[in-house]
From TrEMBL:
Start and stop residues of the PPR repeats: 124-158, 159-193, 194-228, 229-263, 486-520
Keywords for the protein's UniProt record, in alphabetical order: Repeat
Domain PROP1-like PPR: 147-292
Origin organism lineage: Eukaryota, Viridiplantae, Streptophyta, Embryophyta, Tracheophyta
Protein name per its UniProtKB record: PROP1-like PPR domain-containing protein
Family named by the database record: Belongs to the PPR family. P subfamily.
Length: 578
């Protein structure tokens, strides 16, 4: 009955709109007019009201962006001062959003610890998980595990998001067993996985050829009532394409559309790349047809890869052109002539630079290595930007040999790399346990005028100590400028010798520090006490424990703490000797 009345009302309105134009004119004629006022104000107000000064509204996104710029472009000393002056209330959401902007890792960690000491603020599962994710992405697995341990000790809620992040980064660091243990721990704690958790774990298993386990996890997800999303289907198809089961993969490709889950741009790019590497063109044609119907495009490197694959197989590229009308295929062969336009075509360095850029963009890194070797033999010099890019790309693909070749080329030809290139190479060597090469990198980096900084230098020395490489750690300490030989780096070196089991050398370094007038911090005493106790020097440890307590009492009366001491306490104010 209500529906009928509603339809009648629509019909009545429709009849009104269909009346002749005279009806509309009558509406204007019958409009009530306001009679003119007889009295007019002839004098202005004596004190006219002034408009209020309204302050412009500050949006949260602008605040987060401002904090990110402070952390990225300022030293920590300056950043800390600016953060204290900000008129904002620190809460979990704000801190989490700042961390998600991904400021430099060391700044993010310093900010994380600084804001944790602000009154009325406490870190929760969200801020811990985001910081944990930053460490994982940077390959700092030990730091990630330390944060996770802190979450457990503080009794914070650990949900599927945290577990998923941990198992993902463990698998990225090739610790598959650790990822499996994390999954089992999550299930043992009664934490129910989400579709993201299932998908991430399936990818870990399929990527490491644990097909039966991955299939069982997929079936378990379906039985639990969780529907696969686009990324889940992509993981399945990626494995099937890699295993050469193209028909099964394309069957999933069509069935997921029947289930109203459309493959997205990322999925299509991944699948086309897999097919190109296998040299199979007929699956590419079907995926391109879907992309044409749904207005999706390939990323430019994948587009070039698909174009080369089709040409190598003798297939027409008409469909590829239709999907990518914005790319002129005819100009691809000549794009480098436009992009790397040279004044002198006979200049061998310019020609070599253009060729290296082409190969680097296509990720043909073996060809880049061969070309660099040839250029190095001919003593042809390239520029710093290009060589730094080669180091970054090789490190991003875990090609330590290619990165070191670019470094040696830069040393031989006198090229000064960017600071970030040196740091990327050092990080890559640490993850590959090639510690002897790190000393050469740091010495060269220092000689070119770049600085590790107190924080990174202390971390590097400490990391070499964990690897039982005291000689390398001592060389790096000696290469530091005098202003960076402070309490933090000295403490790191003391910890190195304690970790190597040589307490006397550790105490010798500590005494040398004191002779230079450098006072120990809380972190220094923590290293001394823990190291001496571990090596059975209990009486010495007790002496330093008393000094530590005395320092803690005096800390309440100190107005300010130098930055070197803050860094030292941040890194070593716990038992770090392993």
């Amino acid at each position: 009955m209500l529906r009928i009345n509603y339809l009648h009302g629509l019909a009545a309105n429709f009849r009104n709109w269909n009346r002749p134009l005279n009806f509309l004119h009558s509406l204007h004629q019958n409009k009530r007019r306001t009679p003119p006022t007889k009295h007019k104000f002839t004098k202005a107000l004596k004190n006219p009201m002034k408009p209020f000064d309204v302050e412009p509204k500050v949006y949260m996104r602008d605040t987060i962006s401002n904090i990110y710029k402070i952390l990225k472009y300022s030293t920590w000393e300056s950043a800390e001062t600016q953060l204290k002056q900000l008129p904002i209330r620190w809460d979990s959401f704000t801190v989490n959003q700042v961390l998600k902007t991904h400021p430099p890792m060391e700044k993010a960690w310093l900010f994380f610890n600084w804001v944790g000491k602000v009154k009325s603020f406490k870190h929760d599962q969200f801020t811990y998980t985001t910081m944990l994710d930053i460490f994982g992405e940077a390959g700092r697995v030990s730091s990630m595990k330390y944060l996770f341990q802190q979450m457990q000790e503080k009794g914070l809620k650990i949900d599927a998001v945290t577990y998923t992040s941990i198992l993902h980064w463990l698998s990225k660091s090739e610790d598959v067993d650790g990822a499996v243990e994390t999954w089992e721990e999550m299930r043992g704690k009664g934490c129910f996985p989400t579709v993201v958790s299932y998908t991430a774990y399936m990818k870990v298993l399929f990527d490491n050829q644990r097909v039966k386990e991955g299939t069982a996890v997929y079936k378990e997800m379906l039985q639990s009532g969780i529907s696969p999303n686009c990324h889940t289907y992509t993981v399945l198809m990626e494995y099937l394409f890699g295993a050469g089961k193209y028909e099964e993969a394309l069957e999933i490709f069509s069935k997921m559309q029947e289930a109203r889950v459309k493959p997205d741009k990322a999925a299509c790019n991944i699948l086309v790349e897999k097919c190109c590497k296998a040299g199979e063109t007929w699956p590419i044609i079907q995926i391109l047809q879907y992309m044409k119907e749904n207005h999706l495009v390939l990323r430019y490197p994948i587009f070039l890869l698909a174009l080369e694959t089709l040409k190598a197989a003798g297939e027409r590229d008409a469909l590829l052109r239709q999907v990518h009308p914005h790319i002129s295929v005819e100009c691809i062969d000549n794009e480098r002539v436009v992009e790397y336009k040279r004044n002198d075509f006979e200049d061998p360095s310019s020609l070599g630079r253009g060729l290296v850029w082409v190969l680097l963009k296509k990720l043909n890194l073996q060809a880049v290595d061969s070309l660099l070797t040839e250029l190095m033999d001919k003593n042809i010099k390239l520029d710093s930007e290009l060589m730094s890019s080669i180091v970054h790309v090789n490190c991003g693909h875990c090609r330590v040999g290619g990165a070191l070749l670019a470094f040696k080329y830069s040393v031989k030809t006198g090229i000064k790399l960017e600071r970030t290139a040196y740091l990327a190479l050092i990080g890559c060597l640490i993850r590959s346990n090639r510690f002897t090469d790190i000393v050469e990198i740091v010495v060269e980096m220092t000689s070119t005028g770049h600085s590790l900084g107190v924080y990174l230098a202390s971390l590097l020395i400490y990391r070499l100590g964990c690897a039982r490489r005291p000689t390398c750690a001592a060389k790096i300490f000696d290469s530091l400028p005098d202003d960076q030989k402070c309490v933090a780096t000295y403490t790191a070196l003391v910890g190195v010798y304690f970790a190597a089991g040589t307490a006397d050398k550790g105490l010798k370094i500590y005494k040398a520090m004191r002779k230079k007038g450098i006072y120990p911090s809380l972190g220094t005493y923590c290293v001394l006490v823990a190291g001496l106790e571990k090596l059975g020097r209990v009486s010495n440890a007790e002496t330093y424990r008393k000094e530590k307590k005395s320092l803690q009492k005096d800390a309440y009366f100190r107005e300010s703490i130098p930055m070197e001491e803050k860094i030292c306490d941040l890194l070593f104010a716990r038992d770090v000797v392993s």
